[in-house]
């Protein structure tokens, strides 16, 4: 993040992207624009009279193989990688202009977004940043799947996945407060099993998937290796989780634990958080002292435990 991490931030200049949608296979052009303090992250469908959809929990639509947003019947699909990059890079306010129904998949990770944001720079704003500080545990369970968020300083994630071979069981822990997103998470790509390809295409999914934008898994491992990390699969699930939890409207201050979760459970946790106003408060971001990131002043709670726009 930039030096003034207690202030909101936006991108310093507009950024253009183009590519295809992972699931639709449609060509799409996308432009990120600086936005005023307090405006949050807003998608704008330029092909539909600039119709706007805020990236907040109440606009979450169907979530199975991707996280989509919908307002008044207008859809923005596969938002998680971009939202993840914005949280990871400390971008609070941005307008995202898209000329089709799906965000471009690019290389299947968040790295192109991170590199582009680093290239244009980050602009500090005058508005003080707020985080969602977790005050008590909130958990979602579904059979042997689980996700929970707990009080804690910073933003830590413990994630465990358990997939069929050749992935198996993988676990990782990430401390986003240590500014590790760009080096440890951003480059992790989405993945899928070759054996599932036809079934998913018959469902109208992954029409844009290719070896250029996803890890394709055969019986014995990746068909388009090498992997970028030995545990790239679980790192990508962390990437997805960060993007999905961004729909709470602010970065979280607390500890998230996930076991075999996915987009539906990630967004279910956001929904549970929004419904239980005793579980969190909006708090001003701790200001780092000159001694460095480990020396942190106590955050100042705000008196209104209400999420903007939720």
From TrEMBL:
GO terms for cellular component: membrane. It holds the Pfam family LpxC. GO terms for molecular function: metal ion binding; UDP-3-O-acyl-N-acetylglucosamine deacetylase activity. InterPro entries: Ribosomal_Su5_D2-typ_SF, UDP-acyl_GlcNac_deAcase, UDP-acyl_GlcNac_deAcase_C, UDP-acyl_N-AcGlcN_deAcase_N. Zn(2+) binds at residues 81, 236, 240. Its cofactor is Zn(2+). The keyword Transmembrane helix does not apply. The active site is at 263 (proton donor). The keyword Hydrolase applies. Pathway: Glycolipid biosynthesis; lipid IV(A) biosynthesis; lipid IV(A) from (3R)-3-hydroxytetradecanoyl-[acyl-carrier-protein] and UDP-N-acetyl-alpha-D-glucosamine: step 2/6. Catalyzes the hydrolysis of UDP-3-O-myristoyl-N-acetylglucosamine to form UDP-3-O-myristoylglucosamine and acetate, the committed step in lipid A biosynthesis. Belongs to the LpxC family. This is UDP-3-O-acyl-N-acetylglucosamine deacetylase.
